[in-house]
Amino acid sequence: MQFGLFKSIFNPSHDAAKPVNGFATEENPLLNVLAQLNVGSILATVRPFLAQLPDSFWMPSQASSKAAEVDTVFYVIYWISVFFFAIIVGLMALFIVRYRSRRQGERAPDSPNHSLALEITWTAIPVIISIAIFVLGFQSFMNIATPPRNSYEILVTGQKWQWFFEYPNGFVTSELHVPEDQPVKLTMTSEDVIHSLWIPAFRVKKDVVPGRYTRTWFEAQEPGTYPLLCTEYCGTGHSDMLSVVTVHKSGTFEQWLEESANIYDTIPPAEAGELLVQRSGCVQCHSLDGSPNIGPTFVDLYGYEQQLTDGRVVIADENYIRTSILEPMTDLVAGYEPVMPTYAGKLKDKEITYIISYLKSASDRGPSEEESAEAETEDPAAQDPDAASATEEE
Ligand code: CUA
Q1: Residues with CB under 6 A from ligand 1
Q2: Residue 184 domain-assigned?
Q3: How far does residue 353's CA lie from ligand 1's centre (Å)?
Q4: Cα(274) to centroid(ligand 1), Å
Q5: Looking at 189, 216, 250, which one is the last position of a domain?
Q6: With 80 as the cut, is the pLDDT of residue 182 above it?
Q7: Domain check: are 22 and 140 in the same one?
Q8: Which atom of ligand 1 is nearest to the CA of 235?
Q9: CB 3.0 to 4.6 Å from 354: which of 77, 273, 311, 333, for a disulfide?
């Protein structure tokens, strides 16, 4: 393949061409040739013009290291399209007016119906432009697909209809938290259907597929909070699959993680439980004010009789709540869809105990103050899940 023409167009100074990180390899000569095109100098030429554009018209703020690169590809394609649209539609309008028939019954004069030179030109120019767009896009795509080795890894699970983010210390959140100025790699999978994680400000979008792992990465550059959403139509709750990314200032992320992971041990169990139901996303389906939602409200749930879909009536005690969190399909309450995801592996035993404490505090059938003080000293291991499901099944 001959790319010399490209070089003279896009790289007039003939800088030493450097392979772009993450995709040129000794083994693949084609990739090497593409890498030689030196996308850096193309971008350096184009960027000053782009910087003058209002970056809020087409795109949100550029909050990650990849944003400028992605936007450049977008704007290159955009301005090429604007240019050709203006030329084609402009000339067409001009010709319609200039050469329109002025007399009744006038016949069009004979005109040349073939010009080899013209046809070669209007084929070659679009081919060159298409290849240039491909090279720009491909280099950017390969960079996005190749996380740096020193990336901070966060495990992502998509689930109808919520995101879970697990940090290296085992702490799980429903909102993403990341450090500033550090590459972050997301290793993602789904519990059910295909979701797609999208962080517009970072220009990150990647499908999250059941039964396999997909990955993406970014380096956040501006502390702040940005929207995070699902872009794959994954069911009726698709539009609710919203979350946010919080970018922590350099050096403060580790402290946040440490404190967040340990906060539940330092406050009363019922308060820890309330924090947990908010942070784990329970409140998206279960209200804390008594109003009905996708699932039963958490107010006056504990201690009350629950009518189940299979006809059984059970009292919502500690074991009922624990089973409902870990095996949501076991004791379905009548009148609600079987849509709750399992929290097995996402909430620790201790955290489930805190949530139970919170539900007790939110119910008028919960224990009095003194009783709850006693309950705190109870051994959580006494709540054996096997024993729980055994009694319920018999
Ligand atoms: Cu998940 Cu849409």
Answers
A1: 158, 161, 195, 230, 232-234, 238, 241
A2: yes
A3: 30
A4: 26
A5: 250
A6: yes
A7: yes
A8: 2
A9: 273
264-312 pLDDT tens trace: 877 888 888 888 888 788 888 898 888 888 888 999 889 898 889 888 8
Task: Report the number of distinct structural domains present in the chain.
Answer: 3
For 66, the domain range is: 4-95+117-145
Span from the CA of 173 to the centroid of ligand 1 (angstroms) = 17
In sequence order, what are the residues at sequence separation of 6 or more whose Cβ sits closer than 8 angstroms to the Cβ of residue 387? 319
CA 347 – ligand 1 centroid, Å: 22
Question: Is 300 found in the same domain as 370?
Answer: yes
Atom of ligand 1 nearest to the CA of 208: 1
Question: What's the whole-model pTM score?
Answer: 0.61
* pLDDT given at position 293: 84
DSSP assignment, residue 171? Answer: -
Residues 123 and 234 in one domain: no
The total of other beta-carbon atoms located within 10 Å of residue 60's CB is 15
> Which residue's CA is the nearest one to ligand 1's atom 1?
195
